């Protein structure tokens, strides 16, 4: 009789011990140290998005005017572009990035102020390239109206 009570106690304790053993703490992933990289500025009529990549093209971090805290039509202003770049530069200093190539795309109003904020930060800018696509040939014309 006492043996039965011991077995029931051991079975009731076993699942509790197993569940405690299954819970594992996750280590925070170490941020990669990169000394040279690329900064992509995508400036549209509605937003400014800044991405930082390593030389292989893997995105290390990014920010946008919406992420910084601007809403609605304020996202497309030059001030929002400047603050977005300052947010990226603040976080990129932790990773040791000091030499960058800059690629600009789009025709929004935040592109110039983002580049000015980058140049004023003291980071070594190796090149600035405009990758804005240009229309060629235009769209297909509307078919003639039949009356």
| Category from helices, strands and their pairing | alpha/beta
* Largest sheet data: 5 strands, mixed
Residue fraction in strands: 15-25%
What is the CATH first-level class name of the domain at 36-130? Answer: Alpha Beta
If helices are DSSP runs of H or I spanning 4 or more residues, what is the number of helices?
4
Give the end-to-end Cα distance, rounded to a whole number of Å: 101 Å
Question: Strand order, biggest sheet?
Answer: 3-2-1-4-5
The CATH H-level superfamily of the domain at 36-130 is Ribosomal protein S11/S14
| CATH topology label of the domain at 36-130 | Nucleotidyltransferase, domain 5
Detail the poorly predicted runs. none
Structural notes for this entry:
The protein is an alpha/beta fold. It has a domain at 36-130: Ribosomal protein S11/S14 (Nucleotidyltransferase, domain 5, 2-Layer Sandwich), CATH 3.30.420.80. It is 33% helix and 24% strand. It contains 4 helices and 5 strands, in the order αβββααβαβ. It has helices spanning 2-22, 65-68, 78-92, 111-119; strands at 36-43, 48-54, 59-64, 99-105, 124-130. Strands 3-2-1-4-5 form a 5-stranded mixed β-sheet. Helix 3 runs parallel beside helix 4 (111-119). The mean pLDDT is 85.
